[in-house]
Design brief:
The chain is an alpha/beta fold. It folds into two domains: about 5-140, Rossmann fold, CATH 3.40.50; about 145-215, Beta Barrel (OB fold (Dihydrolipoamide Acetyltransferase, E2P)), CATH 2.40.50. The chain is about 25% helix and about 30% strand. It contains six helices and twelve strands. The chain has a five-stranded parallel sheet, sandwiched between helices. Helix 4 (about 100-105) links the parallel strand 6 (about 90-95) and strand 7. The termini are far apart. The relative contact order is 0.12.
Length: about 220
């Protein structure tokens, strides 16, 4: 039995996780949604060759960390990011309460419409997540995904991170982002207390959901 969301039929779902038991668990929720899971049991060596293969599926469910025993050459966030341009609805399921994981995911966050924690993942949230993806492909973004040109103040800088205050999002919370998210020509002139602008999804509910585009000096 397939799932119809608007005019899109979803039936076959690829399941990507470097742990066989986890692949089985994700697959059970897909079956409970009356869909057909297709676990990726074999190792993948080249992501560029693999993306065309993924286009035969109606949707993707993937974990973030996939490199155990050389199972996959990239992490799940990059898979979802790449699938976005092919309009393949993809759900990233992961724990993302660690700063390193947040850094890894944030660079791809503009093309990751939905992230579910392992505790949140279930048949109903799977369906909702796929619907969010399909709506975003049509330009119907959730309010917390929409970008706005936003004033930003640099609070501090170190060797790996830039620390920001985004008053329109939360005037009291410092946000840490990896330096590689800011283009080099701007990064090299940044100093604490400097004021600038970027496009930010200021209605994001949590700091981990923030993403940034089009940095510009004031």
């Amino acid at each position: 039995m397939s799932l119809i969301i608007d005019d899109k039929e979803i039936n076959n779902v690829c399941v990507i996780d470097d742990d066989a038991q986890a692949r089985h668990g994700w697959s059970l929720a897909i079956e409970d949604s009356k869909l057909h899971p297709f676990p990726q049991n074999e190792k993948v060596l080249n992501i560029d060759d693999y993306i065309p293969y993924l286009q035969r599926f109606d949707a993707i469910v993937t974990d973030h960390h996939l490199m155990k025993k050389n199972y996959f050459p990239v992490n799940g966030a990059e898979i979802v990011y790449r699938c976005y341009d092919y309009k393949i609805p993809s759900i990233l399921v992961t724990r993302y309460d660690d700063e390193k994981v947040v850094d890894e995911i944030r660079r791809y966050r503009n093309k990751i419409p939905i992230i579910l924690s392992q505790e949140e993942y279930a048949p109903d949230t799977l369906r909702q997540g796929l619907e969010i993806c399909l709506n975003e492909f049509k330009g119907k973004l959730l309010p917390e995904r929409k970008l706005w040109r936003t004033f930003i103040r640099i609070d501090d800088i170190d060797k790996t991170h830039v620390y920001l205050l985004i008053p329109a999002w939360n005037p009291n919370k410092v946000v840490s982002i990896n330096r590689n998210l800011i283009q080099e020509e701007i990064l090299k002139v940044l100093n604490p207390d400097m004021k600038m602008f970027a496009q930010v999804n200021i209605e994001a509910k949590d700091v981990i959901d923030l993403y940034f585009k089009n940095w510009e000096l004031k």
